[in-house]
Amino acid sequence: MFKMFSCKDISKATCHSDDLGLFERINYKVHLLICGNCRKYAHGIEVIGEKFTEVLKKRRKVSPEKVTQLENRILDSIKKNNGNE
Ligand SMILES: [Zn+2]
Known about the structure:
With about 80 residues, this protein is an all-alpha fold. It has one domain (about 5-80). Helix content is about 75%, strand content about 0%. α3 (about 35-60) packs antiparallel against α4. The protein binds zinc ion (ZN). Zinc ion binds near residues 7, 35, 37 and 38.
C-alpha cells in the first residue's frame, strides 16, 4: 500500500534525492506539497547545492574536509532556523 514518507524520511531522502526511485520521488513530492517544514528544508538543501556549485566553480581546489565542515555548518543553521518540531 501507499506509505507516506515521514518528515524523517524526507530529510534523509533530500540528501540523496538522485537515488530515489520513481515511486519514492512521487512520495517525496507529495510530502513536500502538504508539509511546509519539509518544503523549507528541501529548499534550503537546494540553495546549498547551488552555493556549493558556485564555490566549486570559483575555487577548484577546495579540500573535502573544508566542504564537509561548511556543509555541517549550513545544515546546523537550517535546523536551527526550522526550530524544534
Ligand atoms: Zn514533513
